[in-house]
Design brief:
Blueprint: H1 9-40, E1 46-48, E2 51-52, H2 58-70, E3 73-78, E4 81-87, E5 93-95, H3 97-113, E6 122-124, E7 130-132, H4 134-140, E8 158-162, E9 167-171, H5 181-198, E10 205-209, H6 223-240, E11 243-248, E12 251-255, H7 257-263, E13 264-267, E14 270-273, H8 275-289, E15 296-299, E16 305-308, E17 316-317, H9 319-330, E18 335-338, E19 342-344, E20 359-363, E21 368-373, E22 376-382, E23 397-400, E24 408-412, E25 417-421, E26 424-428, E27 431-435, E28 457-459, H10 461-470, E29 476-479
Parallel strand pairs: 1-6, 3-10, 11-18, 20-29, 27-28
Antiparallel strand pairs: 1-2, 3-4, 5-7, 8-9, 11-12, 13-14, 15-16, 17-19, 20-21, 21-22, 23-29, 24-25, 26-27
Helix pairs in contact: 2-3, 8-9
């Protein structure tokens, strides 16, 4: 059996001394490393926002953090597809270097004061300040950067008139996909700020484009708009169901739905009546049926026609008043039947005929009077009219009988008379019909002699009584 190898006592001492020396050297080296690492750097086993910065100086740690922040990718998705990629830095975002350096220096000082031989891993979240270049961000977020996708504009809600349906409808708003750069910038700012608060130095950032960044309709459908549609259609239906029938004696003029339809002014969101068209209609109505203050052509009892220019009897339509009343009627949705609005009214009419068979006719040349009522001759009689000289002639023209009085005193300081008559029926300028008991006869040429009146029409008493009891105030008299 071989002899066992044995170390001498001396050899053992040498080996032991060498081991102890090595341990001392390693220990001294370790402590030297710890001192240097904890004194000149942020220390061992340290990370900031998850990024390892162990044994880095404040300057190097700052640069590493800046590089990591600036190079973070920002990916934009739309409809499930990538449409654009950039970086935080290209979007104009950065960390304030001065503030970051100050925080790192303070952190290093704090850790130096709390140096430990056996360090444990620690992650710090230090304060930071974000800077942003607005112009650079606007450039990076220009809508032209987001691909060549075909985009459609948003459509505003609107009240419109539908030609096919013949009524107003509410067109709902439609959301398009055109990018609103202002909304996009605001949305990106919000998403990045939220991301930075959660993970300042994390990985890629994903932002999804949807209606949050699209141009919005400026007008959206509302109850108010629907109420407007309902109101417009209600008014439209009223206009279409209205008729206006003017009664002019037995003659009528009708404004039917077809005529009213031509007066409607319909735009996309409004409904009006063409007031100029209404005014024109009323003007034409007045031109057709006004009978006062225009020369009057009259068919005499002798069978011929005469024209009297001084015509103050008849009807006159109040055009302003009629326009206002007609506008009210048109909006009523009912069948309206009425007389026109008159400013002056005669006694009765049948269309353009404002006598309708009831009038007093006087021929001065023939010194004769006729009284008609409802187309029938009531009486006729000779008369004595005003003497044919200045200040005493009987006026020619047409007037309504102003009133009746029985008895009545006729007087004139100018001509020096004061007489009582039983039947007084004035028509114009102090002239009138009355009985004249002082006349010995009537007719012929008596009016040209001293028997002529001062303008009044003298009648036999029985005829004056008959006329007085047949007519009322307003009865037309035509003198020619």
């Amino acid at each position: 059996m071989a002899d066992k190898f044995k170390l001498s006592r001396k050899a053992k001492k040498i080996i032991l001394g060498a081991c102890i020396g090595g341990v001392v050297v390693l220990t001294a080296g370790l402590f030297t490393y710890i001192h240097i690492a904890d004194t000149n750097t942020l220390g061992r086993k340290i990370s900031i926002y998850g990024m390892d910065v162990s044994t880095l100086t404040a300057d190097k740690a700052e640069q590493k953090l800046l590089d990591a922040f600036r190079s973070r990718k920002v990916q934009f998705k739309e409809g499930g597809s990538d449409v654009y990629q950039t970086t935080v830095s290209e979007l104009g975002y950065d960390l304030d270097e001065s503030a970051l350096k100050s925080e790192l220096t303070e952190l290093q000082t704090t850790r130096e004061a709390n140096r430990k031989i056996f360090a444990t891993q620690e992650d710090y979240k230090i304060a930071y300040q974000i800077q942003k270049d607005e112009e650079q961000e606007k450039k990076a977020l220009a809508s032209s950067n987001f691909g060549d996708k075909e985009r459609t504009a948003s459509v505003d809600a609107a009240v419109q008139y539908d030609e096919q349906q013949k009524q107003f409808v509410l067109v709902n708003d439609v959301q398009g996909n055109e990018i609103d750069e202002t909304r996009l910038q605001s949305y990106v700012d919000q998403m990045l700020d939220d991301n930075f608060r959660l993970k300042l130095l994390g990985g890629d950032i994903q932002i999804t484009l949807d209606t949050n960044v699209y141009q919005q309709p400026s007008v959206t459908a509302s109850d108010e708009m629907q109420n407007k549609v309902t109101g417009l259609n209600d008014q439209l239906n009223k206009y279409r169901s209205t008729t206006v029938t003017y009664t002019l004696g037995s003659t009528t003029e009708v404004i039917d739905a077809g005529t009213i339809e031509t007066w409607l002014q319909i735009t996309d969101d409004s409904l009006n009546i063409d007031q100029e068209a209404v005014k024109s209609y009323v003007q034409n109505l007045a031109a057709k049926y006004n009978t006062i203050y225009v020369p009057r052509t009259f068919h005499t009892s002798y069978g011929n026609d005469v024209t009297v220019s001084d015509n103050e009897y008849g009807f006159q339509i109040d055009q302003d008043g009629e326009v206002q009343q007609l506008l009210t009627d048109l909006a009523s949705g009912t069948a309206v039947t009425r007389d026109p609005v008159y400013s002056i009214s005669g006694m009765q009419r049948n269309g353009a005929d404002d006598l309708n068979g009831s009038y007093i006719e006087v021929s001065l040349d023939n010194q004769h009077l006729w009284l008609y009522k409802d187309g029938a001759l009531v009486t006729e009689t000779d008369i004595v009219s005003g003497a044919p000289k200045a200040g005493r002639e009987t006026y020619r023209g047409a007037w309504p009988i102003a009133y009746k009085a029985s008895p009545y005193n006729l007087s004139s300081q100018e001509y020096g008379y004061n007489v009582k008559v039983n039947y007084w029926m004035p028509f114009v300028y102090g002239q009138g019909l009355h009985d004249a008991s002082w006349q010995s006869s009537f007719g012929g040429n008596r009016y040209k002699s001293g028997a002529g009146s001062h303008g009044c029409i003298n009648l036999p008493t029985d005829q004056a009584a008959l006329i007085y009891n047949t007519i009322d105030s307003g009865y037309p008299i035509i003198i020619y």
